[in-house]
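FAQ: What does the model actually see?

It sees only this:
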Amino acid sequence: MNLSTLIRCRPLALLALASLLPAAHAATPAELLAAYTAQAGAAASPERGEKFFNTNFGKDLGLSCASCHGAVPTKGFKDAISDKQLEPLAPAFNNKRFTDRAKVEGWYRNNCMDVVGRECSAGEKADVLRWLLTLKP
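And it is asked to produce this:
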């Protein structure tokens, strides 16, 4: 390939690649659940997910997922620690939740480290998401 061909094709190749980037992060909650379940190698349990969500892990301030997202993740909740208003976590009550793989992974990583003191397993992520998907209006 000569230089003039490379110069002409490069912008087109970059444009094509850039058009794929948003799609690479886009997901549905069901797709994320399927991926976590496959990684875990076991079916997700909404009962385990609810228990995990409400467990006080005793790290630092004795937090649980519910400490920041509210005991009822179908409603908005004001986080007492950060003083931020959080939108509902359950996907049926907030259609933006669990739709961006990168954001979901980032939040799971940060929140699990803060609350549980370690990264959450794929099974724990699947369980929590499976429980959240059972919550309907």
